[in-house]
Task: inverse folding
């Protein structure tokens, strides 16, 4: 059993450790703990926990959680004020990285209650509590804003503007980490919105390109878009997104527009279509619309370009 003076002294020492971890959240990259400091803070928690299991253990857990909330409320949330576009995503990435570093040290200091007390009270670990706090107080509250910014950046790049691809890639990794910690499919949510907007965008583009250019011009644009979307997915999207993205693009630019493309070619040739061209288009259409076809969309486009009626541009 600790004397009141000893207990107060230990709590003051522990407060020094907590305050030092907060400097990590404030962006102080030089913060580090020596072996002696780590052992001192760890020993304080162990002694407090051992001296009065129930009373001090509850206090230690409450102090751990309070330290997380204090850092989030005093550092993380204010950092998002007035941040827009890529700056908001960069701030999220930085705050999440600093937060993980801070909680890593706190979990080390509070290891005694993490092993012998917390699982019996919360049925989880201190690391789980840390992740849930960041999710509930930060990510959950700002997710829609993070999603809107990410979608906006993708759309900007699609229109030819330069964007911060690195931040976009890293923020998607944060979304996937949140999924891992909470079970909520945050990345799948933004992926669904992105695919829907991509579909709407290329639906409009297909109509414009077909109305204002030749079939050869149209096919060349489709080629270019497929290449650009594949590169876009490679740069900053998780690997499973690329097939879904290309499928949406092909659906709007190829499969949905096929009949209109053929009809436009008929009109250009006064209604005359050679038997070869008719047979080739029919075969391509049937094969590309089926899953597992031996013809790819690229082969279909190539056949279209090299056919007797649509000549490739020089």
Result:
């Amino acid at each position: 059993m600790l004397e009141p003076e000893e207990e107060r002294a230990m709590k003051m020492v522990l407060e020094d450790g907590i305050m030092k971890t907060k400097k990590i959240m404030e962006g102080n990259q030089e913060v580090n703990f020596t072996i002696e400091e780590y052992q001192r803070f760890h020993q304080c928690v162990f002694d407090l926990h051992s001296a009065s299991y129930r009373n001090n253990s509850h206090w230690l857990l409450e102090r751990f959680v309070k330290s997380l909330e204090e850092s989030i409320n005093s550092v993380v949330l204010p950092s998002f004020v007035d941040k827009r576009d890529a700056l908001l995503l960069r701030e999220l990435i930085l705050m999440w990285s600093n937060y993980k570093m801070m909680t890593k040290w706190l979990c080390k200091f509070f290891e005694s209650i993490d092993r012998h007390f917390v699982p019996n009270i919360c049925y989880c670990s201190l690391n789980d509590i840390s992740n849930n706090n960041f999710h509930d107080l930060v990510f959950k509250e700002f997710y829609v804003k993070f999603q809107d910014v990410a979608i906006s950046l993708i759309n900007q790049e699609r229109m030819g503007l330069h964007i911060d691809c690195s931040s976009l890639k890293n923020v998607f990794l944060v979304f996937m980490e949140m999924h891992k910690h909470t079970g909520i499919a945050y990345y799948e949510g933004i992926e669904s919105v992105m695919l829907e907007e991509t579909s709407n965008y290329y639906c409009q583009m297909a109509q414009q390109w077909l109305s204002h250019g030749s079939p050869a011009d149209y096919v060349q644009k489709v080629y270019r878009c497929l290449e650009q979307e594949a590169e876009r997915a490679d740069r900053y999207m998780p690997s499973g997104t690329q097939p879904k993205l290309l499928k949406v693009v092909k659906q709007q630019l190829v499969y949905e527009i096929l009949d209109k493309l053929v009809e436009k070619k008929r009109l250009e040739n006064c209604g005359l279509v050679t038997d070869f061209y008719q047979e080739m288009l029919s075969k391509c259409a049937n094969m590309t619309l089926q899953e597992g076809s031996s013809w790819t969309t690229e082969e279909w486009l190539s056949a279209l370009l090299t056919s007797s009626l649509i000549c490739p541009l020089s």
